[in-house]
Amino acid sequence: MQLNRREDVPVYRQIALVLQQRIDAGEWGASGQLPTEPLLTAEFGVNRLTVRQAIAELERAGSVVVRHGKGVFVAPPFTRAEIVVDAASQQVDMGSVHLTVVEAADQLYERVVGSADEGDPEASSHLGLPVAHLQRVDTILGLHDATAAVLTSYWLDRHRFGDLVSRWAGDVTLPAILRAAYGIELGYDWRGFSAVAAGLADSEHLGVAVGHPLLVRDGVSVDESGAPVYYLRRRYPGERVKFILRFRDSGI
Amino acid sequence: MQLNRREDVPVYRQIALVLQQRIDAGEWGASGQLPTEPLLTAEFGVNRLTVRQAIAELERAGSVVVRHGKGVFVAPPFTRAEIVVDAASQQVDMGSVHLTVVEAADQLYERVVGSADEGDPEASSHLGLPVAHLQRVDTILGLHDATAAVLTSYWLDRHRFGDLVSRWAGDVTLPAILRAAYGIELGYDWRGFSAVAAGLADSEHLGVAVGHPLLVRDGVSVDESGAPVYYLRRRYPGERVKFILRFRDSGI
DNA sequence: CACGATTTGTTCGTATGTATT
DNA sequence: AAATACATACGAACAAATCGT
User: Fold this and answer.
1) Closest CA of chain A from B6, distance in Å
2) Does the beta-carbon distance from A215 to B226 stay under 8 Å?
3) The whole model's pTM is what?
4) In the 8-state DSSP scheme, what is residue B104?
5) What is the DSSP string of B128-173?
């Protein structure tokens, strides 16, 4: 394989492109294992660091998975949990994540991992409350058996829900708490979808690399009178979930 | 600043954490410029590559922006284009991106950047056609004045739309072509939202780093009879767009 | 406009640590 | 325990972008 050392495109990127082409061609199809770093170093005639930069690029792209002490492997295709929202009926199960595990709802848990009297400009504007009136509660939502996890931040009026965390006996979801302890029946106001890179804290909680793409689902939930109760921002590892908005009748 | 060389957490990560804390504290608030690599190297008493690894981590996290020849800067807060979908009415303007630029729809363009007789398992299953019957068309959608861009792949029946690309006179969107050249009036069947990392090709087209989080919006569009016309997969730079699903009446 | 100073980008070389088999 | 493979860190050199003189 020839590399253009004078090209304006760096050597490590050229190597990444070549390896990506070989992956697409299914070159290492069976085991899915790429040649080791020393082998690639020898083949391309470059420094090991340069090879590592190429591999790191492919890892960030999601093309390969690097396993310490084992090797570099072609990334397996992901299977996303699908969460369907019916546009017409507006009927969506509370909490959404229930839908992915509707057959195992009792295995669902939500655990508080942190809270602070900390506002957020966006939360403030969506709730119509000054930043100083807000508290933030961070939780991990997931299945007992799976390593899977979802990270959520809620912002609530701290004058009204100041004792929320102390009332939060583990392993129940927030809608359940609000129903039991405050008599509030929640409904959706709106939900937004966007994508961000995992920050240092996200990385810790979700067990993904810094910069890993996260699907962000934020929004406001309201009580029966339509008054806002909280603003939430939920982050899912991007390759694990897909929200589907269905416009036509599902034909039932 | 003290670093634990024996800790199980790498030095470059400890440095990244310290820098992140300083960013959160607003330490370099005015100019937003962090100390130069040589300065950080001196302060932490480590190699320059170690400092660079820390900065690269923060860059991937979206905390800083690195500019060649200039320096490292605290990342400015992003402003997303918001695209609102009304869940009740099911009425969404065709193409969606129109909504972000509804005041400048004539400045919108869609340009074919590639096409191939190439199927896709997912496209195949959603369209109910064998992989061999599909063609793929890749386009860039954006504004003439902006660097902003959206990358889209369409999969269509190549027996029915084999001459689509040749009929695609530049700067028009696909729905417009299908209406003009084939007499098809499109409608949504469903749309999905997920997140992926930018691959090498995505990176080129969108002008973002490899691994950059992309919001993926895929789905099937149908004709008036409800028959599928194409499956599309559209990728947006994550920090630039937010889709909003509104459940309650907008109060008009 | 040219040139140098500053700052980040790329590449090489080397050594040692840690996970896996 | 030894061999293999990836992870971290240090030192050095030159390239490329930016900016002021």
Assistant:
1) 19
2) no
3) 0.90
4) G
5) T--GGGEEEEEEEEEESS-S-EEEEEEEEETTTSTTHHHH--SS--
The amino acid occupying position A251 is G
Yes or no: domain B81-246 corresponds to CATH 3.40.1410.10:
yes
- Distance in Å from D6's C1' to B179's CA comes to 55
The residues near B115 (Cβ < 8 Å, ≥ 6 apart) are B135, B136, B137, B138, B165
Token pair 């309201």: residue: A222
Is the Cβ of B61 closer than 8 Å to some Cβ of chain A?
yes
- B11-74 CATH: 1.10.10.10
Q: How far apart are the first and last CA of chain B?
A: 57
Q: Which residues of A204-217 are buried (b: 16+ CB within 10 A; e: fewer)?
A: ebbebbbbbbbbbb
- Cα gap B63→A200, rounded to integer Å: 10
Among B219, B217, B212, CA closest to B193: B217
Query: In chain A, which ranges are continuous DSSP H helix?
Result: 11-24, 37-44, 48-60, 97-100, 121-127, 158-161, 164-167, 174-182, 200-206
CATH 3.40.1410.10 segments of chain A: 81-246
**What are residue A104's DSSP bridge partners?**
none
Which of B90, B211, B236 is nearest residue A247 as measured by Cβ atoms?
B90
C-alpha A97/C-alpha A86 separation (Å) is 15
Å separating the CA of residue B19 from the C1' of nucleotide C3 = 35
Residues of chain B with CATH 1.10.10.10: 11-74
Q: What's the distance, CA B65 to chain centroid? A: 18
- pLDDT tens for chain A, residues 1 to 252: 667 776 789 999 999 999 999 999 999 977 889 999 999 999 999 999 999 999 999 999 999 999 999 999 999 988 888 888 776 655 444 334 434 333 344 556 788 989 999 989 999 999 999 999 999 999 988 754 455 688 999 999 999 999 999 988 777 888 888 988 899 988 889 899 999 999 999 998 899 999 999 999 999 999 989 999 999 999 999 998 898 888 876 544
Minimal Cβ distance to A213: which of B87, B192, B197: B197
Structure tokens at A144: 């007992």
Q: Which two tokens stand for residue A82?
A: 């699908």
